[in-house]
Amino acid sequence: MAPSLPAKRPSWRPDIEGLRGLAVLLVVGFHAGFPLLRGAFVAVDVFFVLSGFFLTSALLRELVADRDVPLSDAYGRRIWRLMPALLVVLLATLLMSTFLFAPIDRADIASNLLPMAFFTGNLDLAADGVNYFSAGENPLLHLWTLGIEYQLLLFWPALLLLLGWIGRRRAGAADSDATRQLIVLRTLLAGIAMAGAVSFALSIWLSSASPMWAYFGPHTRLWAFAAGSAMAFIAGA
Fold it and tell me: Are 54 and 227 in contact (CB under 8 A)?
């Protein structure tokens, strides 16, 4: 079956919200220490898959139709949607740490605030060789996922724009709009599949060569974004 444009997404998706809720419960169950959910932390990848799905669905029609892609709007909506809540979490953590942590530990917590606020906390954790599963003293540790989310948010639309441009060049003077759209869609899908395969291979290799970068690196999580993007094509098939 040839790839096609995804249908217009309704304002509320019970299937997607149900999947998101299940992923949240699995992660909470893992942190609560339920024996049967020891591997449930992999549900974090579900959030990256969903982000790739939504982001690609929002951009795909504009790319294929050669319309202006409102990247500033896409970036701005996601940043301002979470920034107020993030600031509350950071300030509340800083305040509570003055009461719950020893003075010698407060400086480390304060030093983590700036990279977490600018979505680079995951890179700092990887560079410092922090083991996620034995770093319970860091109350900001869970924010590493936001770093990956926004780093991929900056990269992924640019990649899609490049693939769309390549697809339009390949389409050239095709004899119909439908043929041109098909060539662009196939180019996008092929590029997404290649990016996902490279990222997945890096994830496997770095899991032994550099485990912390495999865990916290955006390049080893990009495959999940790619999987969600591929689902955007399947959803419109």
Answer: no
